[in-house]
Amino acid sequence: MVWEVLLHPATVVFETVAQGTLQLHAPLWFGDTPTATRMAGHLRNIHRRVKGDVIDVGMPELGGYAATEPRDAMWAALTELHPVLWMYESFAYHGDGGPRQLTEEQRDQYVRELGVYLRLTGASAEDIPGSMAELDALYDKYWDFFGHSDTMNIVPETGEDNQELMVKAMQRNWHPSQQLAADMLHEVYEQFRTPILASFPERIQIKAGLSQVQRTEAVKALDDAQPLIRELQQPESERRIMRMMWGPDAIMLIESARELHRRALPWLPTS
């Protein structure tokens, strides 16, 4: 079920807006076991330095963070792949049919199959959910770590706003040669930032600080965007976006995974 979602053109096109990153995920999601294991080890080495004593200066009671520790590694993986499912259910077209939700059984299967990935990334075995109900309970357990915070981006040591620092750095390092990439990011990310919010469960929307007006606007934006969402999933558009956003190695892995998936499930459509 995970590959059914991840290999769909909607995910290939809109995965960035669903959860923010992509190329490094291709070998983790679509590579063979040795490849995925090596990539997971590589990412752990990179993330060992991602740690600190304070998650949010405005809420010191939350404690610190460490990207390679089981809790944070687990939520890094879950916040990759659970939002992708939300996006899929609101964005993915199926032939002439529009987006639709998975059945309860399919959702449970999706969560069970995530367990392989969660173990690979270092999640604690007792926290790995085996159903959507168990995943919901996991959110409840860690609910204090979710939500909007005006102080989340404050750097504890300097008091500076990390988001503002990032914007200034991008402006300082801007070069016209980057325009093509910026245009692509606008096409598949910036213009869908509001519609994607409509795919989130209501309690996540509320926890993120969205008002009723904002939630209503997101639903309308998603509805208005459906013709473009469908157009960008067409083969020609998908191929163009894959070249720009994923690159040749990831494309090879995606195409190989799709072929393996078709062989395993021969009733699937060929395009």
From TrEMBL:
<dbReference type="InterPro" id="IPR018713">
    <property type="entry name" value="MPAB/Lcp_cat_dom"/>
</dbReference>
<dbReference type="GO" id="GO:0016491">
    <property type="term" value="F:oxidoreductase activity"/>
</dbReference>
<protein>
    <submittedName>
        <fullName>DUF2236 domain-containing protein</fullName>
    </submittedName>
</protein>
<dbReference type="Pfam" id="PF09995">
    <property type="entry name" value="MPAB_Lcp_cat"/>
</dbReference>
<feature type="domain" description="ER-bound oxygenase mpaB/mpaB'/Rubber oxygenase catalytic">
    <location>
        <begin position="19"/>
        <end position="187"/>
    </location>
</feature>
